[in-house]
């Protein structure tokens, strides 16, 4: 029997591009959703017998005793323990996990890559994941990895979950469908998705080939940053984050489930689709967010604020204010500062900064940092605008100016990032990147006048 049901109870073809998934708004909300009427128990979590003969199962994303527990109660056709037969080691050699510090790779430096090209071989979400950097240590649940995915093929009767991490997905090209245990999310460039640790899903290609960036967060979950004196509005607003409505498959076909666990991959064979949750309630769920709804706040008279002003999501570390990861967005905005050097200032930072270009041109690097490309300015390594950006910024007339056609982001972490062998040797690294600063001229001549 093959069926996928949505909230309305109507049979939907959730595996085809024609269907529009349903969503519920609100970051961190306590949601409830059922794909069949009456499937969700009311007033309690564990009735003696659940309607429709479903099994109750809790998915805990935090310790039970966390100050703000995140968990979801699932009502499913089979408990997921039934989804795990014996595990066998699987190899995904290009998906690396921290600590991974290759001996012959130098991570000290300023690095920039052209977009990874698509090849001739078909790739899925799993085989198409290429790790560029790793930071921290998965065994202590700290740090992150950055990846680029190249996906041409849908996963067929194949499912995945990461016990190691939450995944933040930033598409740059193509459209993907994430069919998850808790519902369906469609994702296009200029949107992001968060896939929680432990959630089972399959990824289908709606419009390929697809390329994008992934931040794999080994630590505490991403949350909305406190806005401080900015108040209750602007930046990312909770209601623009959307969780999917329940959708399930009752499909008995031989299937493979791959699990990422402490950096290793294991497979198990199961006899059915594991996407068999008919109803759920809770606050631990996948979400999508449209980056065009991000409302940037900035300097309205003079100077250039720290990029933390553009934080969309932050994954805290044990040290308040020092994130395991900040996800920062540089999007279209007005520049109005008077008597100000408007692009990012030159700087060194204890945090390490990995950037990706989603589309357009980034103000500090008018050339060379192209859509699909990535750059890394690692811990305490100097960087800033290239010569062209410096000259333009110091000579242009400072009327109100709109930065248009621009969307880049940063994964900023408190941990140094280590390049993988793939990033150092196989990815299209720009050997001449640091030359973008060599032509910066000495302007100093001992006199105080403007240069
Ligand atoms: O290095 C970069 O381009 C990112 C960045 C942007 C900014 O506006 C201020 C600081 C910073 O690190
Ligand atoms: Fe920077």
Automatic annotation (TrEMBL):
Cofactor(s) annotated in UniProt: Fe cation
Q: One Pfam annotation, family name?
A: HgmA_N
Domain of life assignment: Bacteria
Any keyword Iron? Answer: yes
- Catalytic residues as annotated in Swiss-Prot or TrEMBL: 304 (proton acceptor)
User: Record-annotated residues binding homogentisate?
Assistant: 362, 383
**GO MF entries:** homogentisate 1,2-dioxygenase activity; metal ion binding
Quick one: which residues bind Fe cation?
347, 353, 383
Q: What is its EC number?
A: 1.13.11.5
Q: Which InterPro entries match?
A: HgmA_C, HgmA_N, Homogentis_dOase, RmlC-like_jellyroll, RmlC_Cupin_sf
Tell me which family the UniProt entry assigns to this protein.
Belongs to the homogentisate dioxygenase family.
Query: What is the protein name stated in its UniProt record?
Result: Homogentisate 1,2-dioxygenase
Q: Which organism is it from?
A: Boseongicola aestuarii
Gene from which the chain derives: hmgA
């Amino acid at each position: 029997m093959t069926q996928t049901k949505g909230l309305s109870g109507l049979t939907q073809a959730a595996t085809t591009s024609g269907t529009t998934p349903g969503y519920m708004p609100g970051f961190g909300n306590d949601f409830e959703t059922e794909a069949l009427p009456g499937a969700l128990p009311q007033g309690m979590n564990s009735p003696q017998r659940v309607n429709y003969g479903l099994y109750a199962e809790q998915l805990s994303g935090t310790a039970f005793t966390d100050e703000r527990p995140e968990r979801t109660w699932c009502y499913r056709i089979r408990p997921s323990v039934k989804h795990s037969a014996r595990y066998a080691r699987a190899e995904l050699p290009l998906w690396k996990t921290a600590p991974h510090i290759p001996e012959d790779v130098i991570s000290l430096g300023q690095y920039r890559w052209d977009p990874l090209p698509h090849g001739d071989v078909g790739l899925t979400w799993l085989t198409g994941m290429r790790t560029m950097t790793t930071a921290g240590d998965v065994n202590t649940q700290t740090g992150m990895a950055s990846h680029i995915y190249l996906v041409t093929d849908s996963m067929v009767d194949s499912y995945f979950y990461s016990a190691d991490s939450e995944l933040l997905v930033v598409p740059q090209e193509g459209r993907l469908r994430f069919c998850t245990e808790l519902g369906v999310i469609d994702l296009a460039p200029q949107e992001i998705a968060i896939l929680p640790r432990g959630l089972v899903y399959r990824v289908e290609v709606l419009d390929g080939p697809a390329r994008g960036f992934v931040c794999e967060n080994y630590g505490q979950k991403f949350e909305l940053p406190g806005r401080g004196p900015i108040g209750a509005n602007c930046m990312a607003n909770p209601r623009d984050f959307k969780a999917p409505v329940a959708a399930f498959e009752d499909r008995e076909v031989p299937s493979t489930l791959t699990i990422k666990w402490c950096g290793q991959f294991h497979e198990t064979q199961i006899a059915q689709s594991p996407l068999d949750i008919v109803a759920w309630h809770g606050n631990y769920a996948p979400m999508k967010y449209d980056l065009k709804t991000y409302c940037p706040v900035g300097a309205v008279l003079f100077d250039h604020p720290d990029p933390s002003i553009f934080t969309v999501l932050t994954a805290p570390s044990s040290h308040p204010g020092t994130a395991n990861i900040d996800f920062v967005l540089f999007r279209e905005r007005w520049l109005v500062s008077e008597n100000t050097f408007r692009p990012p200032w030159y700087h060194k930072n204890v945090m390490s900064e990995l950037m990706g270009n989603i589309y357009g041109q980034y103000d500090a690097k008018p050339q060379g940092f192209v859509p699909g490309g990535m750059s890394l300015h690692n811990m305490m390594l100097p960087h800033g605008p290239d010569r062209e950006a410096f000259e333009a910024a110091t000579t242009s007339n400072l009327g109100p100016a709109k930065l248009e056609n621009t969307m880049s982001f940063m994964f900023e972490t408190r941990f140094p990032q280590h390049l993988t062998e793939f990033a150092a040797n196989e990815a299209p690294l720009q050997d001449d990147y640091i030359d973008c600063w060599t032509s910066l001229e000495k302007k100093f001549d001992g006199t105080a006048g403007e240069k």
